[in-house]
From TrEMBL:
It comes from Candidatus Uhrbacteria bacterium CG_4_9_14_3_um_filter_50_9. Belongs to the Glu/Leu/Phe/Val dehydrogenases family. Substrate binds at K67, K91, S345. InterPro entries: Aminoacid_DH-like_N_sf (IPR046346), Glu/Leu/Phe/Val/Trp_DH (IPR006095), Glu/Leu/Phe/Val/Trp_DH_C (IPR006096), Glu/Leu/Phe/Val/Trp_DH_dimer (IPR006097), Glu/Leu/Phe/Val_DH_AS (IPR033524), Glu_DH (IPR014362), NAD(P)-bd_dom_sf (IPR036291), NAD_bind_Glu_DH (IPR033922). PROSITE patterns: GLFV_DEHYDROGENASE (PS00074). GO terms for molecular function: glutamate dehydrogenase (NAD+) activity; nucleotide binding. The lineage of its organism: Bacteria, Candidatus Uhriibacteriota. The active site is at K103. Gene3D superfamilies: Leucine Dehydrogenase, chain A, domain 1, NAD(P)-binding Rossmann-like Domain. Transmembrane segments: none annotated. Residues 180-406 form the Glutamate/phenylalanine/leucine/valine/L-tryptophan dehydrogenase C-terminal domain. NAD(+) binds at T187, N217. This is Glutamate dehydrogenase. SMART domains: ELFV_dehydrog.
Amino acid sequence: MNNPFENALSQLKRATALTSFDEKFLKRIGHPNRQIRVSIPVEMDDGRLNMFEGYRVQFNNARGPYKGGIRFHQDTDIEEVKALAFWMALKCAVVNIPMGGGKGGVTVNPKELSKGELERLSRGWMRAMADVVGPQKDVPAPDVNTTPQIMQWMSDEFGKITGDTSGAVITGKPLEAGGSEGRGTATAQGGFYVFEALRKRLGLPETCTVAIQGFGNAGQFAAKLWHEAGHKVVAVSDSQSAIRNSAGIDILALIEHKRSTRSVADFAGAETFTSDDVLYEPCDLLIPAALENQIHEGNADRIQAKAILELANGPITPEADDILHAKGTPVVPDILANAGGVTVSTFEWEQNLKGEHWGEEAVFERLKQIMEREAVLIADRAKELNTDLRRAAFVVALERIQEAMK
């Protein structure tokens, strides 16, 4: 398996070869400011004590407090968290919001825990990290397998420990606990605004056929948004299986089917096939919305999509990037395409600090302006540097971080 952090450094090297950066800055930006590993004791329902390993990597805070999600996953480790923290620093700079980059996690399969065990683990993570996070220091958020409920437990625990009850320590909370309107759909919504701003430049038709890998939060909302805008979602996968129908899938019915059966398999009116093969579906737009390293050297030449938009973090390895670039398949990179989530998270933080609550329309209006502006700027930069969108996005982000670090 590719080491995600080595992939991130490889992407860094490729991008910084295009234009001149200060040598000391380049040395500095390849290393996180701080890496924290903690042991979290959790009493299980049967009275046993289990120890879990938790992480927080604070990568760079030159542009503002560290910002980034916490993931609960059995394969999570410090290298993955480090890569995600690095990408977060770039992502916040790409959309020009006043935040740095961080990321957290716990090595655990949350599906194996009861609700009580999950709450004790979540509060335990916050107790272990309470002195390194805070509204002006480091502001976590949800990520893979963490929910608004988990964020609420963590926010509540922080308030008990520190007395800070603004809720601004953490974003992605439920609405009634200080969450922002639009946060649930923000990642997919931001990706859709970027797609609309760049569709013609990507050489895509007005009505696209779309394949989506991953049917969690981002994947479901993406399917809904593209479907509602009149595009045809022709294939969808989750971790167990995939379905396809070249005439288009009824997304609302599929969401209901997934909710009741916990799988996309055996959906009426669609053919069920192998989960991984969704990547090779012939379509205009492929949206990877699952995990890292899904498209790699071994399968990149099998991709038949005309363009790719990364809603997941790091779904394409650097080697695959080169293959896709040579094939003429444009990739809208994660640090731009999925930055809607962190942008609306920052709005939530701002609302908590000011004691305000903005309506969904106001939230999306601000999000649309930011995503469209930065997408066009990066596409222009790619043209100017005669490179792909990922390298152009890296250059723009690094220039902004370098400026702040001066």
